[in-house]
Amino acid sequence: MNKIRSTLKQGITTPSLIFIIGVCLISAIYPSATEDLLSTVKNFIFINLNWVYVWSVTLFVIFLIYIMASKYGNIRLGSNDSQPNYNFFSWMSMLFAAGMGIGLMYFSVAEPMQHYSNPIFSSMSTVQRAQNAQLYTFFHWGIHAWAIYGVVGLALAYFSYRYRLPLSLRSCFYPLLKDKIKGKWGNIIDIFALCSTFFGITTTLGFGVVQINSGLVTLNVLPENSFPYQVLIVAVLVLLAIFSAVSGLDKGVRILSNINIIAVVALLLFVLMLGPTVYLIGSFTEGIGTYINSFFSLTFNTHVYEENTQSWFHDWTILYWAWWISWSPYVGLFIARISKGRTIREFVAAVLILPTLFNFIWMSVFGNSAIWFDMNTANGYLSKMANDPDGLMFQFLEYLPLTKLISFLVIGIIIIFFVTSADSGIFVMNSIATKNARISPKWQTAGWGVLLAVLALMLLNAGGLEALQSMTLITALPFSIIMILFIVSLTKALVIDKGYYEKDFSSTTIPWSGEHWRERLRQIVSFNDAESTELYIKTTVQQAFQELGEEFSKNGIDAKINLHNIPESIEVEIKYDVINNFKYGVKKESKMISEYLLDEENLPNSEEGVVYYPKSYFGDSREGYDIKLFTKNELISDVLKHYERFIEIVSEEKNTMFISSDANHRFK
Q1: pLDDT digits over 369-415, tens only?
Q2: What would the DSSP string read from start to end of 191-230?
Q3: Per-residue DSSP letter, 618
Q4: Is the pLDDT of residue 251 over 70?
Q5: Is 457 a member of any domain?
Q6: Which end of the chain offers a freer environment for a tag, N or C, measured as fewer CB atoms within 10 Å?
Q7: Does residue 275 come out as left (phi exceeding 0), alpha (psi in the -120 to 50 range) or beta?
Q8: Is residue 59 part of a domain?
Q9: What is the C-alpha separation between 144 and 61, in angstroms, rounded?
Q10: What CA–CA distance (Å, rounded) separates 65 from 58?
Q11: CB 34 within 8 Å of CB 122
Q12: Which domain holds residue 576?
């Protein structure tokens, strides 16, 4: 009998499942007692340690803005010549769907209405309460939230694609722990990430199911909002999520995310055009200005001088910071997975600015429309429903044309967000549990979806979702400290990275002396064709490398000449066991000539408009250059120049982690 194949790592999976199932069972069997205990702990943290969240989130924002604007922004998440795996639209669609999907549908009307109708703001005028509701909604769903995701995603993507370490939270500690990340410390970090991801997805999907059920009841598709129907909804949606997850990111998640972002924009435009359009555009414009003007006061405000608003501050701002932090392992891992090949500047700008801007537009259109209807049409009815977020969105749609059709569209969007959140969650959990195994059996991927569905339904039926939510929020406190260590680790690595590529050549390097100037002039004033370039590689370059290899051998160094598909390319390579190999190669490259130069009499002719030239390349992905003017001896000198630089770099202790991160594939 064949043994069932699995890629799960027992040191991570077993303790994680024991803890996850144990907490869920306790929450389901003793929901009230568990909720009381965990709520007590959560409230203690929120009241006495809320400053930890405030300072942490502030640090995340400042760090990312600095990194984006600094010289480190040009560093690519991968080798220097790597390219993104996904086009910009697909990348943003997946990023957005995983990061805030269901939450936007759930809170887009509910949060502004709850701020607007909250009794603690009753002393304000109606207009002030409306402005206040928009400002705090912007604050909770803006740059601060995405900065939390961005720190984790950037650290994971950088160490995974730049240092070639596993796509795992443990890799973010490599500059601090070095090889210890392979052992128990690395396992503990991954166990924490797996449990946090599972809890966050379970609670969010549980609330999403309730909203879908409520919407179907409103549309008379289902007779009631009850557990049996929720079981049916979960069964269908999780099956779709499993099918999508098994299909892979390139098919399931990407296609669903692209479809959903189009549907979301269509819904947004519908509400904008058929709602109070002038009011929405004006309130959005004013809201952006208010947010910018209040940015620093909002960021650092702990409400310590305002006792009447402290409970609101704990229940909203601190809860949101804890919620985003608790979700960051999951969202960060997913963002990192789809961001290979982006520069740090491109990554940070996209993650911070674009989703924030969309969130502001979305929240303004839906939240401000609801407030306008409440003031002018609904006679305060929406305010009275503020504490029923499950049905508030559908009640809001009653004040727009084509209510039934748009309600079905909303349910469809929520369903797709549900599926994309679940399937990306399944992917991330399997990735953590397998240490980023490239291929896992389909039954294993499906198993995570089944476990997610079973535990979510069990907690939903027993009333234990609130207890699990409190547990998730509590874990955010230690993880905020872990994220600060990510910043320390990332900063250390970026300094080494930049220093490595900016390392200058030795002062002993001798430039061209002027010898053989007649031959060089002929080369300068002639455009090379493919045949002459191939001849240069096959003669001058090959002869230089062979002579160099023989001389290396005499000095006890084994230098291998890799001919590859000569005369297209050739390289000299010196292999090492502990550090990355030294490599200097030459390949045939081509480039187009400007049309303005083709007919210029005082320049060399090129009939095809394309020139070929021999270009150097290196083992560390630094940008090479045209070497067609080098003689054999000058080429040998150039190789030795780079080899001397290589020896100087590997001799510096601080560069150890950068130059040895993928040498012998220790973490695979």
Answers
A1: 999 998 888 788 888 888 877 778 888 888 989 888 888 888 888 88
A2: HHHHHHHHHHHHHHHHHHHHHHHHHHHHTTSSS---HHHH
A3: E
A4: no
A5: yes
A6: N
A7: beta
A8: yes
A9: 6
A10: 11
A11: no
A12: 517-659
